[in-house]
Amino acid sequence: MAQFDLPLDELRAYRATHEAPADFDDFWLTTLAAAREKGWETRVEPVDNGLAIVASSDVTFAGFAGDPIRAWWHRPADREPIGVVVEFLGYSGGRGLPHQQGTWPLAGYAHLLVDSRGQGYGQQWPGATADPHGSGGSAAPGQMTRGIEDPETYYYRRLYTDAALALDVARGLAGTGVPLFVAGISQGGGLTIAAAALDALAGRGAIAGALPDVPFLCDFPRATTLVAIHPYGEIVTYLAAFRDRVDQTFRTLSYFDGVHLAARAQAPALFSAALMDEVCPPSTVFGAYNAWPSDDKAIEVYPFNGHEGGGVYHRAAQLEWLRARVG
Known about the structure:
Layout: H1 8-13, H2 24-37, E1 43-47, E2 54-62, E3 68-76, E4 83-88, E5 109-114, H3 155-174, E6 180-185, H4 187-201, E7 209-213, H5 220-226, H6 232-241, H7 246-254, H8 258-262, E8 269-274, H9 282-291, E9 297-302, H10 311-326
Parallel strand pairs: 4-5, 4-6, 6-7, 7-8, 8-9
Antiparallel strand pairs: 1-2, 2-3, 3-5
Helix pairs in contact: 2-3, 3-4, 5-6
Protein name: Acetylxylan esterase
InterPro entries: AB_hydrolase_fold (IPR029058), AXE1_dom (IPR008391), CE7 (IPR039069)
GO molecular function: carboxylic ester hydrolase activity
C-alpha cells in the first residue's frame, strides 16, 4: 500500500466536476415527504444490557415506505446527556447487541446507533433490520447495485431516507435544547453526509455538527475508475458485465453522490481522510469536503493509513471537537 492519489496540496483544492441532476432537490424532497406520510409512532423498549453505567433501549421507527428500522438508544445511566450522537454503520455492519458499546455514552452523550436495512451480516456486529424491497433487476453481489437501473428503485434511496428519518427520532427521544450530532465511518460517513444534507434540505432544524469519517459513497465517477476493490468494485463488476448501462448507472448514482449532498449541508463538520485508503480514495473524500459550504469545517489527514483512517487518534480528535460545541 502506498499513496496513490493526488498530492495533498492538490487534494485540498480538488473539486469534482460532475453536476447534480436538475431535479436533485425535488427528488429528495418528494422522497422524504412520501416517507413521512407513512410514519408511525416510534417504539422504545428498555433492555437489560448487563452494564452499570449505560442504559439501553431497543428502538423501532418508521423508515422508507414505513418499513420498520431498528436502532439502539444508549445513554449515561446516572446523568442527563450533554448531547446526542446519531451514528450510522459501515458497509455490512449491523447494530450488534446492546452490550456492545462505543465511546459516546461513556463520554456523556446519548447515542442512537441505527441499523442498516438488509445488512448486518458482519459476524462482529449482527443486524436486525430487513430490506423488504427487491433489487429491481440484475445486480452484483452486495448492496451497491441493488435496483441501480433507476433512482426510484436504488437501494441507497431507502438507506438515505432511513438515515434522515433517524434524526427526527433522535430529536423526539432527546427533547428540546440538546445538541444533535451525526457520525459514522466509511458507509456510515456517507450516511452522515446524506442525513445532514437531507435534514437541511427539508428544513427540519439545526444540527450541531457532522463527523464523516473516511466517508464512502462520494464522487462515484472518480471512485469507480480509481479503485476496483469492493465495495466500489461491485459497480465495476456490474458494468464489466452490462457494458451498455454505463450512462444509466451513473445517472442513478448522481442522485446519491456525497459530493452533491455535501453541497446542501449547513452544519459544522469534522471530516477525516487517509492518504493510503484504497477503499475510499482521499480525492473522493476531499471532493465532498470541499463541496461542504460551512465555514466551520475541518479535515484531519492521516498520511500513512489505509481505510482504518485515524482510528483511536481520530476518535480523540472527535471528542475534543464535540466538547468545544457542547460547552
